[in-house]
Amino acid sequence: MKIDRAISKWCKAGILAFVLIVASCETYEPPAYEGPEFVHFEQREMNVREEEGEVPIIVNIGGVRPLGPVTIQYTVKPNDAAVDLYTIENEGTLTIPGGENSGAIIFEPEDNPFMDGEKIVELTIISVSNSNYTIGFPGPDRLNATTTVKIIDDDCPLDRGFIVTDQNGSVTETYDLLVEEGETDQPTITEPVTISIDPNDPKGIIISDFWFIEGSTLKLRLDACPREVTITDHDIVYVDEEQGALRVTPVGSGVFDPESGILTMELELNVSVGTFGKYKFIYKK
User: Fold this and answer.
1) Phi, then psi, of 56 in degrees rounded to 5
2) In 69-144, at which residue ranges do the beta strands (DSSP E only) sit?
3) Topology of the domain comprising 157-284
4) How does DSSP classify residue 34?
5) Are the folds of 38-152 and 157-284 the same?
6) Where residue 23 falls among pLDDT bands split at 50, 70, 90?
7) Pairwise CA distance, residues 225 & 157, whole Å
8) Which residue of 2, 64, 108, 221 is 20 to 30 Å from 16, comparing CA positions?
9) If you ran DSSP here, which 8-state letter would residue 181 be given?
């Protein structure tokens, strides 16, 4: 079977050595916060894709948890491009229950089919029902009293043919173990692979025989703005009785360049008893 030949190659290259990480740590108790109580947005900036759906904007309480509920009033200021292209649950008011130290404003961008560019919405806390609490991080700048939500337009046109196996060219898969300090480098391996259009996803592609495993598939979504790659599904047929099933975990978002016909991802490949390591995968037409 092809999978046996693939595993043989991995063995020869030393790729199947599992990485055992032993870490030790000392218990650390941070000092108790004794400054003024305050409320603030957890993030100063957020990026939200149009198709992302409901997204929580977290508001935190710093200091001792209040016994009763705390109600926060905030303003919402969209730029001209964002007007009427989002909804906020109970806009303008957020109540954090007593005993809790955070709450969420539910923000949802409109997923439209138009190329309308990036849109910006600013939320600013203006008052708190508990007079003991200040707004923003302590200090003259009152940092995180305002958060900026950037709605990313995901309707840029994209011809997936730049990376699909067709009459205009074949595709190769190159995978290289990402070596950490103290580890032994391994040779880079390049194999032919088949990539096709996903008929069920207008932005999707399907990689067949992923990682040189016959019958395995990896489904990806290509977002043209920004140029990012995300895994939407995978069906890996590699299962070992002792090691277990292979799990594919992305390390951040992949990227692609239609002009050069290259798609790049970093993936961690794990089984129940350990890890094969982190790999850089490059697909080139």
Assistant:
1) -80, 130
2) 70-78, 86-88, 93-96, 102-109, 119-128, 134-135
3) Porin (2.40.160)
4) -
5) no
6) very low
7) 9
8) 221
9) T
Position 3 confidence tier, pLDDT thresholds 50, 70, 90: very low
DSSP bridge partners of 61:
39
Specify the 3-state DSSP secondary structure of 75.
Answer: strand
Whole-angstrom CA distances from 273 to 11, 201, 242 are: 17, 34, 8
Q: What is the mean pLDDT of the chain?
A: 86
**Cα separation of 235 and 249, whole Å?**
13
CATH superfamily label, 38-152: CalX-beta domain (2.60.40.2030)
Give pLDDT, residue 8. 41
Q: What average pLDDT does this structure show over 176-191?
A: 82
How distant, in Å, are the alpha carbons of 76, 78, 198, 273 from that of 125? 9, 15, 44, 48
What are the structural domain ranges in the chain?
38-152, 157-284
Q: Is the pTM of this model over 0.70?
A: no
